[in-house]
Amino acid sequence: MMISNQRFSPLLFLLFSFCTVFGSDRPWQSVGPVTQVKKLSNGVELQAGKAAIRVTATSDSIIRVRVAPGGVFPADRSWAILPEALPEAPRVNVVDSPRAVEFSIASGAVRVQKSPLHVQFLDVAGKLLESDARPIAFSGAAFRIWKQLPTDEHFYGLGDKAGPIDRRNETFTMWNTDMYGWQESTDPLYKDIPFFLTMRKGISYGVFLDNAYRSSFDFGRGERDIYSFGAEGGELNYYFFFGPEPKKVLQSYTALVGHVPLPPLWTLGFQQSRYSYFPESRVREIANTFRERNIPADVIYLDIDYQKDYAPFTIDTGKFPNFQGMIRDLGQQGFKVILITDLHIKKQTGYKPYDEGLAQDNFVKAADGSVFVGKVWPGDSVFPDFTLERVRRWWGTLYRDFLDMGVGGFWNDMNEPAVFERADKTMPLDNRHRTDWGVTLPHTAVHNVFGMENARATYEGLLRLHPNERPFVLTRAAYAGAQRYAASWTGDNTSSWNHLRMMTPNLLNLGLSGYPLVGADIGGFAGSPPPDLLTRWIELGVFTPIYRDHTTKGTADQEPWVHGPEHEAIRRRYIELRYRLLPYIYTGVEQTTRTGIPLMRPVFLEYPQDERFYTEQDTAFLDEYLFGRDLLIAPRVTEMLDPLQINIPPGSWYDYWTGEKVQGGSVKLTPALDSLPVFVRGGAIIPQQPL
Ligand code: GLC
Predict the structure, then answer these.
(1) Is the minimum distance from the CB of 192 to ligand 1 under 6 angstroms?
(2) I want to staple 475 with a disulfide (CB 3.0 to 4.6 A). Which of 254, 269, 346, 455 is the partner?
(3) Which of these is catalytic: 413, 549, 606, 624?
(4) Which residue's alpha carbon is at the smallest distance from atom 5 of ligand 1?
(5) Where are the beta strands (DSSP E) in 85-191?
């Protein structure tokens, strides 16, 4: 347990600019009381002993807090925030009184209590929304922020995390990690987004810790009435977003870190993948089978086995004797091909990407200045330093041949970055990255953004090569802002009912983290799903943004037609439903590109006043969600025989299948295997197209 620093007298605070917080896992030095106040046009700069604290308004609903323990703020740099997202800051009127200094913006107010130094946020009526529970503290390069935790506050976001939708009573680490076979309690996973939003009595606020170092969040697990967050290095720099509506919080956050670009329509169709379809004849067979069986599909993925010795941007002509012809023929059948192109470059003289990259000094360096070599699929590999603009440009040129052949999109995997045969699964923390900022940073500062910069290099490269086509990139690793460049999926899940169930909270939280274009491997990656599970997964996948069936090597076939005619008929009907709904889906995604509000959204995003949809007790077994504003989805995601208890949101709702009006605030259903309960909001227009 921690001993509160309030046991020290104010005099001691004045004598020492910091004081020690005992009993934690590390000796924290707390920032002392405010000793000086300097008013700024858009906020205030405070002195607290040696530390400087800058609290400023960046818009009429966002407050930024920066703390420099030594009094000097570092250069203002962000991987996530778009420079154009912070136009002119509002002017504020700072009120300085003996106990506190405060100012208001249109959506609320911020107050800094001077001793002990607590930052507090208030709503427009002056009611406390969020308050420091103890002063901010530092320990070497690390910092931590502690906030009061009301018993009925709920937390969402943080990107790619397993487990229940509500983050309360859990701790999380932000460190992009390759995690084959992850489970409910596995943390961290592939994507880390240090943004969360809250819900309490219909009111929401959000916090974005703009820091890409390894960070951690504790929502009341370590201490029951305190939540906290901090990072192991980098700047203490966070943004507070006022609601009161959760939609407004998400809109403000996504305006800051950017929106997903509109994807090509075909990427919203059904996608079929496996690790790996080969040889060429098998790929053609898969395409033909979809067409023969009249199962709509738009995409076939080629995983790493199409490459020569797993070297990206090569083709194994033994397995694919007429690669270009295959792309063309599949195109004539209405298929786009998406190719995997991992970021690691095989270390082999005579292989063009290696020779060129080496000659141009494009690869990440080890601490001793030599090119870092790590083992991945191709064996010894080197890694482009994606934090440099010139390297990103070069990487983009590697796509020319594939793009000119008519390849539809690209898949950037293993970009956490994953490195084999190392306990930490990634590159050494003291590897060096040269950046566009003119400073060389250790891997520890860059790790969480490396995958995003890889996806960025691909996206921007494709745009440069074919400026009139919307690129499609799929990335596994991401950080705040990566949605600007790529869609994503939840990595190596498992063919189990529990993984089907975990898909919904995971994808919902990605959407609430500003990452809306996401999906999970339908049917599960590790293992072979039993027939009912694959059928249920294909049904539910209709109502997820990226609809891709994928599985690993050595598993049973997982295409929709396996498991006999009865299952095939159900699966076909649902994939057809996806296609009928494409106008609704495409419209919804287009709205996301402007608002940041995801297609797949928790019910509370639309109905924040209805506490049934976010109070802990009820959400433990609540798998339902909204797909767009107007469709309520209530999936069967377990093998249990109990009927589904479906909470119906306020207003009139109708059964999508029967058109019957739902009576009352909830319904109980036991859906048969071929039935996924879907309800439509009264008054909605659901645009659909003929098959
Ligand atoms: C990783 C990916 C998986 C892919 C495999 C081979 O495990 O997560 O989707 O199939 O690598 O490329």
Answers:
(1) no
(2) 455
(3) 413
(4) 275
(5) 95-96, 100-105, 108-113, 118-122, 128-139, 142-148, 154-159, 171-174
CA angle 290, 293, 296 (to 5 degrees): 50
Measured CA to CA, the distance from residue 409 to residue 517 in angstroms comes to: 15
Name the pLDDT band for 618 (thresholds 50, 70, 90): low
The verdict on pTM exceeding 0.70 is yes
503 CB-side CA count, 13 A: 37
Annotated catalytic residue within 102, 160, 280, 492: 492
Give mean pLDDT, residues 660-678: 95
Asked if residue 520 has its Cβ within 6 Å of ligand 1, the reply is no
pLDDT tens digit string along 69-103?
999 999 999 999 998 898 889 999 999 999 999 99
* Total count of residues recorded for the chain: 691
303 Cβ closer than 6 Å to some ligand 1 atom: yes
Catalytic entry in 102, 280, 416, 521: 416
Average confidence score pLDDT of the chain: 95
Task: Find the helix packing angle between 582-595 and 565-580, rounded to 10°.
Answer: 50
| Ligand 1 neighbour 340 (Cβ under 6 A) | yes
Please give the distance, rounded to the nearest whole angstrom, from the Cα atom of residue 206 to the centre of ligand 1.
33
